[in-house]
Write a structure and sequence with these properties.
Blueprint lengths: L31 E4 L6 E2 L2 E2 L3 H10 L3 E6 L6 H10 L9 E3 H10 L7 E5 L2 H9 L3 E3 L12 E4 L7 H12 L3 E4 L5 E4 L2 E4 L1 H12 L4 E2 L6 H10 L6 E5 L2 H11 L2 E5 L8 H5 L7 E3 L12 E4 L2 E4 L2 E6 L2 E5 L5 H18 L4 H18 L3
Parallel strand pairs: 1-4, 1-13, 4-5, 6-7, 6-8, 8-9, 9-12, 13-14, 14-15
Antiparallel strand pairs: 2-3, 10-11, 16-17, 17-18, 18-19
Length: 367
């Protein structure tokens, strides 16, 4: 574990994206994995097909795994129970939340035992208590007294009065840390306001911004690496969202595996590549147990595992060869990223080609 001898150089010396190969399983290059949850392990209450079995196999081989979530409202034990119900050997110690990262950040800024308004759900107060800080609950008589800081995470039971009280403390100079800045919260009926929306509400009223610790910022990943006891250079971040999981891994100096099992389709990388390009592009978690075919530039196109993608007048010219769909997607992403960096295509034409790239997964599945 942690031996890079079976992979190519960690950073490609050329301009080709995804040019790093792995002759053996990707997992063998790392000592630990920081795994995202929604879109990677589960969707809602149910498991992503094949994900629990893949994680079970990794754990059985001794791979250390922690699960990092931006959700500050849930207790680590509740997250662990959910994962256990899916068949994973997980305890609360294997879960790192943005509330825990926020409490850890506050512990470096204020004295032990300081009073902190726990503006959020149960996970926020519990994280503060774990860190040796005095969690003051919203709406309690103690919340009207002075506090040294405010830790803000999602709390769906919070009232207008709770936010007004928080604003009063923050206007008086209390340290302000937010667990995450996700503007939306997916629910059964659609998208509800997330913690970031409520952070923005206070920021607009106060004219100041908090320190944010959740993805895409580095502190949550750093807390996860500390929990693992690994080094950043031998730790892999696995996630499905480019704007949080992959950008956060880049900010923390971790390699990243982008799974095409969640909300982001391949075309999203063309819109967000400036936030960071993932180390690996995978169709499923099970591909961590397999060799990885790199992308290489060829005359007029890009190849991966015997498949070839080139740009032509009609769009993407795809020759599958022996390549799997996800390997064709890697080659197609390299082709289109080259055009983005070169500025050779207009935005409308790029969108058309990106939709064609997405179709490689739509027609055949993500792996």
């Amino acid at each position: 574990m942690g031996d890079d001898s079976r992979t190519s150089e960690r950073t490609s010396t050329g301009a080709t994206p995804f040019a790093r190969a792995s002759e053996g399983p990707i997992r063998d290059a790392y000592d630990g994995i920081v795994c995202d949850l929604d879109g990677v392990v589960y969707r809602g209450a149910g498991a992503v097909p094949g994900a629990p079995a893949a994680l079970q196999r990794l754990a059985a081989r001794g791979v250390r795994i922690v699960y990092a979530t931006n959700n500050a409202s849930r207790l680590p034990g509740e997250v662990a129970e959910h994962l256990t119900s899916l068949g994973l050997p997980v305890t609360a110690a294997d879960v790192v939340t943005s509330a825990q990262a926020g409490a850890a950040a506050l512990a470096t800024l204020i004295a032990p035992g300081s009073r902190v308004l726990a503006l959020g759900g149960p996970g926020v107060a519990a994280a503060l208590a774990e860190t040796g800080l005095d969690a003051v609950l919203p709406g309690s008589p103690a919340s009207t007294g002075p506090v040294d800081a405010v830790l803000q995470g999602l709390g769906r039971e919070l009232t207008v009065g709770d936010f007004e009280n928080a604003a009063r403390h923050l206007a008086s100079g209390a340290v302000w840390v937010a667990s995450n800045a996700d503007s939306t919260l997916p629910l059964e009926w659609g998208l509800a306001p997330g913690n970031g929306a409520y952070v923005a509400l206070l920021a607009a009223a106060l004219g100041r911004e908090p320190t944010v610790v959740g993805k895409p910022h580095a502190p949550l990943y750093r807390a996860a690496v500390e929990r693992l006891g690994t080094a950043p250079e031998t730790t892999l971040a696995v996630g499905d969202r480019l704007d949080t999981d992959i950008a956060g891994a880049v900010a923390a100096g971790l390699d990243s595996a982008w799974l095409l099992t969640g909300v982001d389709l391949p075309s999203e990388l063309l819109r967000r590549h400036e936030d960071g390009v993932p180390t690996w592009v995978l169709g499923s978690l099970s591909e961590l147990e397999q060799p990885y075919a790199a992308v290489s530039a060829s005359a007029g196109g890009w190849t991966c595992a015997g498949g070839r993608v080139a740009l032509s007048a009609g769009g993407l010219d795809v020759v599958p060869g022996a390549a799997r769909p996800v390997e064709l997607v890697r080659a197609g992403l390299a082709a289109l990223l080259a055009t983005v960096e070169g500025g050779t295509l207009g935005s409308r034409e790029l969108e058309r080609l990106a939709a064609q790239l997405d179709g490689l997964l739509d027609r055949t599945g993500s792996s």
